[in-house]
Amino acid sequence: MAQGIRNLLGLRDLEPEGITEILDTARSFREVLERPIKKVPTLQGTTVVNLFFESSTRTRISFELAERRLSADVVNFAASGSSVSKGETLKDTARNIEAMKTDIVVVRHSSTGAPHFLSRLLKSPVINAGDGINEHPTQGLLDMFTMREKLGELKGLNVCIVGDITHSRVARSNIFGLTKLGANVAVCGPKTLIPGYLEQFGVKVFFDIDDAIQWADVLNVLRIQLEREAGGDFPTIREYRLYWGVNRSRLEKSKKSIVIMHPGPINRGVELDADVADGETSVILDQVTNGVAVRMAVLYLTGLPTPKPSFGLEQAGAKAS
Ligand code: CP
Questions:
Q1: Does any ligand 1 atom lie closer than 6 A to the CB of residue 150?
Q2: Global confidence as pTM
Q3: Measuring CA to CA, which residue among 262, 266, 310 is closest to residue 286?
Q4: Do the strands 104-109 and 73-78 form a parallel or antiparallel pair, or are they unpaired?
Q5: Which of 35, 44, 304, 311 has the most crowded CB, counting CB atoms within 10 A?
Q6: Is the dihedral of CA 310, 314, 319, 320 positive or negative?
């Protein structure tokens, strides 16, 4: 029986009960963030290492804040300025840091599967902070937490993810998590940025943003990932904005008020107009706040010395002993 080490590698392998457990636990930590002293002793004596091999603002700071709010000791590693520039491998980097007696590893990497690889290698629990175009499970969880907070139950909710679906780990984690909890999920964007396999997960596909807006309760708008070569999949940024950009005049055609989400960073005026990003139905900054609570919940659950019933939280790489 797998025991002792629990990882969060993705939402694909979690049972609905496991996802619900994290979201419910996060609700308690969200309340902690409203207190004058936003700190609890839960992870006192635990050392968490944040291994960031790829750029990040929100996820890196959010994990660090979550760790500090739980009273953990925090070590931050960034690939730039490290011995990675001298040719040190991911394996050697992670094992050397763990040899200094760290307890939990958070990792972001541009290669799909890097957290899974580390979970097979290390004794510590591994939390995926985004791996290539695979998954970004804590982003998926904080998006779901925010939808529950704003709109109640996820079951039956119409959520449309708009934009560069092919290159988006956020889209994949949202699709896995939301469908497991009973939401109706759609995607919308240029045909060249929507993978063909999505319908097997029960995902509806829109190519026309106006049709998507008529259908949706929530639009989760994604950035065009030019660094992952998405720019070659449509003619120009101007054309993208014209056909798929979310703006006020499009939203005003809907009879209902649509919740606007974005994982950040935003390309203002490309996938989302600034007045909508900052408008009354935008919950983008609430997502960021909730991210700290969700990451506190994930760290708490992976840091438990004795595993609770797993609900799928033990995943590939959990060590048997
Ligand atoms: N949402 C998100 O992953 O943002 P960062 O890349 O800034 O961490």
A1: no
A2: 0.92
A3: 262
A4: unpaired
A5: 311
A6: positive
pLDDT digits 0-9 by tens, 90-103: 999 999 999 999 99
Do 134 and 10 contact (CB within 8 A), yes or no? yes
Atom of ligand 1 nearest to the CA of 57: 7
Cα 148 to Cα 118, 142, 152, 270, 316: the distances in Å are: 32, 10, 4, 28, 28
Question: Is there an atom of ligand 1 within 6 Å of 57 CB?
Answer: yes
Q: Hey, whose CA ends up nearest to atom 1 of ligand 1?
A: 263
Q: Mind listing the pLDDT tens digit for each residue in 272-315? A: 999 999 999 999 999 999 999 999 999 999 977 645 544 555 44
Q: How far apart are CA 203 and CA 186, in angstroms?
A: 5
Q: Is 263 in the pocket of ligand 1 (CB under 6 A)?
A: yes
**Average confidence (pLDDT) over 211-240:** 85
Q: DSSP secondary-structure letter at 197?
A: G
- Alpha-helical segments (H) within 33-168: 58-69, 90-98, 114-121, 137-151
